[in-house]
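User: Please predict the structure of the protein below. I'd like the answer in structure-token form so I can feed it into my own downstream comparison script.

Assistant: Understood. Taking the following sequence of 274 residues as input:
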Amino acid sequence: MGLRSSGPRRPTRLAMLALLAGGAPIAHLALMKAACAEPTRPAVRSSAAARDKITLPRSRPAAVGTQEAETGDDADAPALPEGFRELAGGSGEPQIPGLTIVYLRPLGSRAEVNNWRNIIVHQTEGPAGSAKSMALGQAQNPTKRGVMLWVETDGTVYWATAETAITTHGDGANRNDNKYIDNSKTYRNVIKTNSIGVEFVGNYPDVAKPATRAQKQAWLVLVRFLQERYGIATENVYAHNWIDFKDNRYCEGCELATLARKLAFQPSKRASGQ
């Protein structure tokens, strides 16, 4: 236990004695009593309204491709730019405001692409900074285990394969327990031959670590680009965990797929078979 110091009071009391000895006027005595008094200050409690007015410092930008990339649920759906639908129908390497896409394979004619009917959201359980190397490996061997698009923790999207390539992802839509959604429509139906895979890196070593805010912001533009380009309805955006039995430690892709569905974006045309 610490001892209380009476240091601050002693000089004040000595000063009073000195004034009394010198015949201090009564008015002076009143002032000295006031000086000796220790007023009780009421506890300061900030109201909710006061806290709302406080401007907090902005977080430092996270280094590109590092584990320190900021996470959070405060992703806002950016407004789509004018001419968005036309951009989504183009070929080459279209760039959408609010989205950075690195094309390892340029887009071809939309009339010649595979009949994509679904989008499956994956999380790699790999480290931040790995999206580029994973995409490069996919580009060299398009049909191996992996996906068409890889999203880094800073929101950069790597388009790895041609739109005609069938990458190996998913587990054959083996989930039929209706745990998350009605699997009567997905069981053995939402598979690699009709589904675009989008992989988000960064949830390593903690698999339950959510996507970064930059990833979510990029996703809310990217998913609408994919929907418009391939005519994919909102209800055909799935988390991997919704259609396949997966790791019980976390729900892979569930938050991101839910964000996409909340947008309720509908493409101008539907893919055949929807």
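That's the full token string. Confidence is low (pLDDT under 50) at residues 1-71.
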